[in-house]
Amino acid sequence: MKKIYPILSILFLVAYTSSCERDDICVDGDTPLLVIGFFDIDDTTTVKSVSSIRIRATDIDSVLSDNESFGFSDRGNTGSSPQDSILIPLRTDEINTSFTFITDSADDDAGLETGNIDTLTISYTTRENFISRGCGFVINYDTLDVQLTLGSENWIQDISIQQQTIENSNNVHVKIFH
Question: pLDDT value at position 156?
Answer without folding.
Answer: 95
